[in-house]
Each structure stands twice: as C-alpha cells, then as structure tokens.
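Thread title: Can someone regenerate the structure for this chain?

I was given the following input by a collaborator and told the matching structure tokens would be attached. They weren't. Posting the sequence so someone can regenerate them.
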Amino acid sequence: MDLPKIGTFLKELRKEKGLTQEQLAETLNVSRRTVSRWETGSNLPDLDLLVEMADLYQVELRELLDGERKNRQMNEEMKETILQVAEYSAEEKQRAARTVRIFFILGIAALTVNAAMNLMDLNDGFWISFLKGATFALALIAMIFGILYTSGALMKIQAFKIRLLNKARRNRK
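Best answer:
Regenerated them for you:
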C-alpha cells in the first residue's frame, strides 16, 4: 500500500469538498493532527473511518485504498463485461437444465413403461422380457447420465477424451 499516494488522494478529495482539515476532523470526530497524518501518508485511517470517508467523498473504498479514482470508462467496460459473462452463464445454466430434464424425463418414461408391463399379466416370452429389461436399463442409464452431467463428471470425461484424441493426432504427425 502506497501511504503517501493515499494521503495525497485524501487531501485532494477533502479540498474538492471544500473542507479544511479542522472541518473534516470535526466531521469524523478525530483531531486535526490525525487528518494531517493521513494526508502526509504517515498513517492510514481505521477501516470504519475509511468507509465513512468513502461515503463522504462519494468514492469507492477501493479507490481510497488505491489512492486514485478509477476511470469511469473502465468501470463501464467492466460492468459490460460482467453482464456479458452473467448472460452467458445464465444461458449455460438453461442449456444444462434442459439436458438434465431430458435425461430424467427419459428415465421416468422408461420406468413408467417398465412398471406398466410388470403390472400387466403378460406372458414372459422373449420379447416381453427383453422390453422389461431394456426399459429398466434405459431408465438406469438416463439417471446415471443425469447424475454424471449435473456433477460435471461428464464434462471432465469429454475433456479427457479430447486430450487423448489430440495427443494421438500429434503422435501420428
């Protein structure tokens, strides 16, 4: 932390507000000498006073601690970037939710068909037994894939597969 830089910045902010050291000291309930020490960079105000000063000077606490104002354009660009990232993240979450719904709907449908077949008194021939086993397996597979997808394991498996394929391609060259 650059105390002299912060002190100079505090002095600039005080002067912008048209306050003397005595007036600021009175407002913050400290001595004029304490304000002088802050402005010369001898020491730093306590955190509670920094928060109060940030409110008084209408700057962010980070700006006080950095000893300079942040560029408004940079702040706007940062906000825009953050909004874009948030929007992308929301779209990804929606896509993930749709995929998980598909896995679980498929599993529920397969279990429903399996349960219906078990409730009916059908002759357990080859095809009936095959369908019972297939619907149960489909339900189980859909649920396992749903769990793998939501836990992120499916993405890790896919990334590992891509790394292996890339490594194999490099080795062929």
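The domain at 3-66 is CATH 1.10.260.40 (434 Repressor (Amino-terminal Domain)).
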